[in-house]
Structure formats: C-alpha cells, structure tokens
C-alpha cells in the first residue's frame, strides 16, 4: 500500500472484526486482478519491490515490470523512487542504447498489448532498431571473408538474425519503418532472407533446421509469404538473395496456392537472375490437380519468357562489363548459361509420359538460337523424349526433332544420331548429310595442315635442342596422316549408306501401292517442298557424292 496507489485504494476500507478482536475469515478481502499485464512472476517481482526486496531488471523483464508498475500506479507522485521511475531509467540507460536489447524488449511487448503500446515502449524500441539498422555500413558486410558467408549470399548482420524472434505484426512494422528511412536495398532484403529462413518451413532443400518452432497455420504462412514477397525489390536482387532462395519461395507459394500476382512477382524476380539457378531449382513438383505432369513445366516456361524479356533489354542497355557481372562465373553471355540449364531440364522432364509434344517443343524453342553453341544437350533431351514416348506418330517425331539445329551437332552426336533407330527418316538423312560435311571439312583441314607443315619453307633444325621438337612435329604429322586415312574410310562408309538410302527413297517414291506401310507415312509435301534445299542440295534427292566431285588424285597424293 505504500508503493501502489491502486492497491492502497482497494485495501483502504476498514476491516470488520469480531467482539473478541479477531478477524472473521469470511470477511477477508480477496482481490482479483484479471486484467493485470504479464504473468504471476511479474506481479511477484512488483510485490517484492514494494517490500524493499532487491529485484533483477533485464531486457526480458523490464517491459513487463514497467507495465505492471503502470497498472498498479506505482508512480513518483505516490511514493519516491518508485517502480515506474526505476524501469524507465533502465529503459533509457540500458535498453534504448542497444539495438539487440531493444529487439528483446520488443519481443516481450507482444504479450503486453495494448498497455505496452499506450506507454510507447513498442514504438520506442522500433525507432531504436530502425536507427541502428540504417546506420549499418553495408560496405563493412562485404569485407567479411568468404568462409563467413551464409547460404543466401553474404553473412547476415547480427541485428538481422535478432529480428527473426519477432512475430509478424511487429516485424512488418519494423520493415515499414525502415523503408520510410530509405536505406539501401541490401539491408531490407538481408533482413527478409533471415526472417524467411527462420519462419517459413521447408524453404531450403539443402538444410533442415530441426530446432524451429512448429509451423504456423496456413493463413498465417500465406500472410508471411506475402510480406516477404511484397517487400522484395522488383529490380535485380542484392547479394543477399540468390535464385535458390527465390525458387524456395515459389515452391511455398505453389503449395499454399498463393494469389497469381504474388507468383508472377516471384517468377519475374527469378528470371532476373536465372543464370544462378541449378537444375534442382527448376525441378519443382506440380501441386495443381489440373496439371498431369510430374513437374511444374508451366512455371518454368513463364520464367523463361520473363528471362528473355529482361535479359534482352539488359544486354541492349548495359555495356560489356556490366553484362559480364550478370554471370556468377563471369564467363560469357547469360543466354549460354541458361541454355545449358534448359537442356538439362528438358532431359530430366522428357521421361514424363504426360508431357505433351507441344509443351516440350515450346520450352526447347523458348530461347533464341544463340543460347546454344552446340545442340548436343538438346539432342540428348530429344532422344530421351522419343524413348519415353514410343507411340508418337511420324509427324510428331519430326516435330520433336525439329527443335534441333543439325548443323550445331558435334561429330560425336552426329555419329550417335545416325545409328539412332528412334529418329524419323528425315532427321536421319539430315544427320548423315551434316556428319559427312563435318568429316569432309575435318579431312580438308588435316590435309591443308599437313601440306603447310611439309612445305620446305625453312631448313631443318640442327641436331641440337631443336632436334627434339623436329622429331615431335614429324611424329605428329604421321599421326595426322593416320587419322586422315581413318576419316577417309569413314566418309566412304557414309557415302555408301547415303547411296543406299537414296535408292530406297527413290523406290518408295516410285511405289504406288495403296495401303503399304511407307505409303501410309507419306504426307502431301508442304508449300516450299520437303526442305531438301536446306540441306544444301540442289534437288530433292540429290545427295552429295564425294567420288564424283573429288579430284582423281587420291588423298595420299594430295598430302
């Protein structure tokens, strides 16, 4: 009663005593403080303070004690050196000078509303947190060693990890206050990454935090996801955010059936740094009951479309040095990196029996032609698709093979494709032609190299240190001639195969038998013919025969 005005008023009524001076137990006053802020331990600490017992005040107890002192009216005008002044002094001298201490106090305010809000404790903590966070020098973050960097970029600052203990309403207030101060994007996005990794279950496939609290309800998760996505910068992300983190958010958005606007924002942000993604990132399971495919190929197709739009405009607007910064490896156009990524993705999803031909072709043709130096990866995906879909018609097989540029197949891929029974006849003929062309070019280059080396343009080196190099060169020439002979034999074999195939095609064209197997496969030629001129031939059935065009001298005489 000496320290609390509220208790003094409640207990100031006179006691009822019996005639013998004893108190009737039925008349003892029992006071219920149903709206007391905090828990029983807080009231016990306030009561000890009233009795002069020393109590410990810390960042986790000061806010409940301050609210209890306000509720019990333990003010200075009622008693000197009271609990209100003691707690306010601790807040001013200890809490509001430290960002981490302010975060801890703000956490305790979650169970003290609305009194903690009326006393301004929560808002003062938020102001201190925002001021300290915005004062952080971003340049100091980049000076940390690579070993200290965390999985989503560089290592997060201490205060970023501290904010992860806050509930979502208080965290949203902190982020909104930070954005009003207009700090750098790295600060806000770094905090968002730390908070998302701590609060969104299953965000990362590589790491599982077994100490996290039970996942919140689905509406709360959706609210959390919306907070993270809407506060991300629409521009290219800072070093704190990588493609793996964004794909994790996209998977969560698909599981929660988030609004389309949120998924679109995520897909566009992923497209801005798609070259950082891995094959595992793209292999997102399909969570829609309306989609029959195992993986979400629709989302990948949309991301590719956004990537082409963003990358094309970036290459037009930026100079060469800025373009090189887009690739984490720093070794070329991002289109090449994404091209290899898409080829690997197609090879993985091609085995899905529910993947339609049109969807396979749309993804394969989404990137421009300069995204691939060679089409070997695309050929592998086509081969897997044809193997997994044996019931395709001849026209569907030709459509699938049409995504490849046969001129960009390496000699090894051509050799494999020429013996691939799953390819349609037209594709095999084109492969054989370009394989023969590559072999001829390789032989011609070998012959020219051998002739240049055999020219007596310089006298042989004296039998000194140069003699070793001379013997090595002579040995290399001999190996080249052997390789040339081997390639010549291969060309002759291919010419015989082409001739046999040409005769077979001519017999098919002359055959008019109705209901025959070959006749059923034939279709009326397109407006521009069968496209044989694309192979470099002057007529439809003319196949280049090297024995007719080559000089009478043998290859050995030329060399």
Measured as a percent range, the helix fraction is 55-70%
Q: H/E order of the elements?
A: HHHHHHHHHHHHHHHHHHHHHHHHHHH
State which percent range the strand residues make up.
Answer: under 5%
The separation of the N and C termini measures 116 Å
Overall 3D geometry?
rod-shaped
The total of beta strands comes to: 0
Low-confidence region ranges: 138-155, 319-331, 457-461, 513-559
By oligomeric state, this entry counts as single chain
Give the radius of gyration.
39 Å
SS-based class: mainly alpha
Largest sheet: none
Number of helices in the DSSP assignment: 27
Q: Overall pLDDT, averaged? A: 78
Biased composition (Acidic residues): 15-24
Protein name: BTB/POZ domain-containing protein
Pfam families: NPH3
InterPro entries: NPH3/RPT2-like (IPR043454), NPH3_dom (IPR027356), SKP1/BTB/POZ_sf (IPR011333)
Walk me through the structure.
It contains 27 helices and no strands. By secondary structure, the protein is an all-alpha fold. Helix 2 (40-50) packs across helix 3 (62-71), helix 3 packs antiparallel against helix 4 (83-95) and helix 18 (334-349) packs parallel to helix 20 (376-388). The longest helix is centred in the C-terminal third of the chain and has 46 residues, at 465-510. The radius of gyration is 39 Å and the shape is rod-shaped. It holds the Pfam family NPH3. InterPro entries: NPH3/RPT2-like, NPH3_dom, SKP1/BTB/POZ_sf. Belongs to the NPH3 family.
Summarize it.
It is built from 27 helices and no strands. It has 559 residues and is mainly α.
Topology overview:
Elements: H1 5-11, H2 40-50, H3 62-71, H4 83-95, H5 99-108, H6 115-118, H7 121-134, H8 138-141, H9 158-162, H10 168-180, H11 185-199, H12 218-230, H13 243-255, H14 260-271, H15 279-282, H16 297-317, H17 320-326, H18 334-349, H19 357-364, H20 376-388, H21 394-401, H22 411-418, H23 425-454, H24 465-510, H25 517-521, H26 546-549, H27 555-558
């Amino acid at each position: 009663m000496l320290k609390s005005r509220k208790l003094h008023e409640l207990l100031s009524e006179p006691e009822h005593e019996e005639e013998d001076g004893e108190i009737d137990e039925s008349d003892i006053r029992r006071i219920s403080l149903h709206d007391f802020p905090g828990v029983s331990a807080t009231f016990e600490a306030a009561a000890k303070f009233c009795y002069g017992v020393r109590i410990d005040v810390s960042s986790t107890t000061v806010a409940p004690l301050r609210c209890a002192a306000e509720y019990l009216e333990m003010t200075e005008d009622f008693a000197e050196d009271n609990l209100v002044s003691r707690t306010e002094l601790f807040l001013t001298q200890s809490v509001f000078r430290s960002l981490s201490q302010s975060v801890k106090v703000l956490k305790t305010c979650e169970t003290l509303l609305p009194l903690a809000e009326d006393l301004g404790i929560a808002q003062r903590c938020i102001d201190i947190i925002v001021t300290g966070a915005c004062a952080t020098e971003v340049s100091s973050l980049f000076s940390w060693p690579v070993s200290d960097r965390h999985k989503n970029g560089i290592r997060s600052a201490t205060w970023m990890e501290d904010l992860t203990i806050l509930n979502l309403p208080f965290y949203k207030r902190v982020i909104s206050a930070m954005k009003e101060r207009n700090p750098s994007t790295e600060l806000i996005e770094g905090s968002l990454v730390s908070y998302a990794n701590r609060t969104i279950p299953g965000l990362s496939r590589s790491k599982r935090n077994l100490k996290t609290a039970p996942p919140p309800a689905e509406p709360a998760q959706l609210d959390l996801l919306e907070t993270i996505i809407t506060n991300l910068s629409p521009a290219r992300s800072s070093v704190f955010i990588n493609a793996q983190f964004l794909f994790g958010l996209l998977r969560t958005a698909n599981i929660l059936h988030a609004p389309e606007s949120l998924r679109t924002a995520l897909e566009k942000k992923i497209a801005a740094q798609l070259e950082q993604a891995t094959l595992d990132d793209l292999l997102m399971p399909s969570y829609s009951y309306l989609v029959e495919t195992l993986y979400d190929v629709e989302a990948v197709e949309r991301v590719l479309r956004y990537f082409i739009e963003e990358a094309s405009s970036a290459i037009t607007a930026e100079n060469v040095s800025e373009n090189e910064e887009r690739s984490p490896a720093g070794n070329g156009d991002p289109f090449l990196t994404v091209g290899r990524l898409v080829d690997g993705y197609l090879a993985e999803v091609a085995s899905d029996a529910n993947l339609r031909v049109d969807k396979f072709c749309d993804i394969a043709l989404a990137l421009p032609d300069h995204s691939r130096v060679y089409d070997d990866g695309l050929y592998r995906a086509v081969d897997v698709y044809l193997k997994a879909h044996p019931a395709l018609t001849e026209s569907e097989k030709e459509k699938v093979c049409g995504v490849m540029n046969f001129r960009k197949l390496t000699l090894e891929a051509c050799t494999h494709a020429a013996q691939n029974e799953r390819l349609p006849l037209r594709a095999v003929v084109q492969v054989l032609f370009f394989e023969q062309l590559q072999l001829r070019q390789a032989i011609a280059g070998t012959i020219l190299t051998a002739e240049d080396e055999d020219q007596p343009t310089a006298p042989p080196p004296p039998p000194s240190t140069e003699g070793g190099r001379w013997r090595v060169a002579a040995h290399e020439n001999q190996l080249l001639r052997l390789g040339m002979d081997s390639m010549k034999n291969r060309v002759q074999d291919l010419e015989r195969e082409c001739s046999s195939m040409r005769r077979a095609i001519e017999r098919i064209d002359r055959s008019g038998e109705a209901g025959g197997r070959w006749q059923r496969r034939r279709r009326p030629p397109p407006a521009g013919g069968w496209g044989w001129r694309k192979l470099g031939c002057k007529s439809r059935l003319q196949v280049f025969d090297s024995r007719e065009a080559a000089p009478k001298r043998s290859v050995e005489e030329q060399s």
